Amino acid sequence: MAVSTWPAWAMRLFGGLLAGCGGIRCARRMVTMQHAGTNKTSSKVEGSKVREFRAFQLEYLLVYLTVMLADWLQGTNMYTLYSGYGFPVSQLFLTGFSSSLVFGTFVGLLVDRYGRRLACIAFCVLEIIINLLEHVPHMPTLLFGRCLGGVSTSLLFSAFESWMVSEHRRRGFDEEWLASTFSLAAAGNGIVAVIAGFLAQVAADLQGDIGPFRLAILLTVLSLCLVAFWPENYGQQAKTTSSLGPARQSFVDARRAISADTRVALLACVAALFEGATFTFVFMWVPTLLGKYDGALPMGLVFACFMISIAAGGELFGLLVADANALVFKGRVERFAFFVLAAASAAMIVPSPPGASFAATLASFLVLEVCVGTFNGCAATMRSKYIPDALQGSIMNVSRIPLNLLVVAGTTMADIAPPTVTFSVVSATFALGALLQLLLIQAQRRQAVKAD
């Protein structure tokens, strides 16, 4: 679809969302400056510490957003690439999720024990291999690539965050500043996803469906070079007197930590429910919108609107924590997460009736994407509060076991159940997550009373 034929409503929607995201960003900046103005008594030492933190933040975000850009690039044309090869797309996707459940969890458990930086390097190497395998139109080769993809996904969503949190604390930065990094990561992820859409289109125009994968290789090589200069940090050390193997011992330690703290268990369940429901939505939004729209739907522009909404959600979370005066550690993030889950549940009720209009359905999808961007920041901040630093990578990977089970179940349901049923189940899943979030808030209050 040429730019000249893009519907006016889609262009206005994209422009409006972009302006809204910019408005939230400006409001966040104003609150931050106002907060800084009330703390002019800060010493030169504190000012130097802030500059050191900003440099560290840039060091992490440059790598994290580059690997996320490469990851988004792979997703844009994967469906059309596999279809062009003539292979069953759903089978390849499910192989990736199943691999993440089995092999990814096993490998991810070794992150804390053998080093987070090493795990980030392993991720980059795996991604380069995976994208090279995508060039081969051979089903067993592609299945092997999806198996490796399951492992790399587990590393992506545990190793980088674990390294950053541990390094943040090792350098002596304030705990409240973690929320700033998480909010920038959430907002930046939405922005690089939009960029990925445009870059993928250019790459595909030049080299076909394989073009975005080649560009992803270059970006991953760049990330690998940057990660090589990171210092190493560890959680649970490799030396152990246990007769169990390293991965099994890490699993046992993570399970014990989850069982010992109700808040960690509840957070793991809430995150799994939210992400599992979101993955189900990802499989549903394209056929749902196509079925409700007369004419050619500008899918690329709609996708860009979704990603801008995620960025707006990240900025909204950043606005919440812009005044870092103990907001994060007095329960405000927990309460905000509850409202985000409730809003996501309400949004998914809208497309459930068969007669839901295109405009109402699209609006509900945009609301959900805002919730995704906001919840990402909330969940990451809560993980940094509740999960022991020594076992952060292990616990995050164990927590992905129910998530991957939910993804497989949701994908299967999306194939066999009508959209009305699927969206109702997705809404109920978010609602259950909101209920568990309330229990988490109560558990946190009880813990605070004990601490006093």
Automatic annotation (TrEMBL):
It comes from the Eukaryota. Its main location: membrane. The chain crosses the membrane at residues 6-24, 61-80, 92-111, 118-137, 143-165, 177-200, 212-230, 264-286, 298-321, 333-350, 423-441. It holds the Pfam family MFS_5. GO terms for cellular component: plasma membrane. It is found in: Cell membrane. It is a multi-pass membrane protein. CDD domains: MFS_MFSD5_like. GO terms for molecular function: molybdate ion transmembrane transporter activity. GO terms for biological process: monoatomic ion transport. SUPFAM superfamilies: MFS general substrate transporter. Keywords: Cell membrane, Ion transport, Membrane, Transmembrane, Transmembrane helix, Transport. Mediates high-affinity intracellular uptake of the rare oligo-element molybdenum. This is Molybdate-anion transporter.
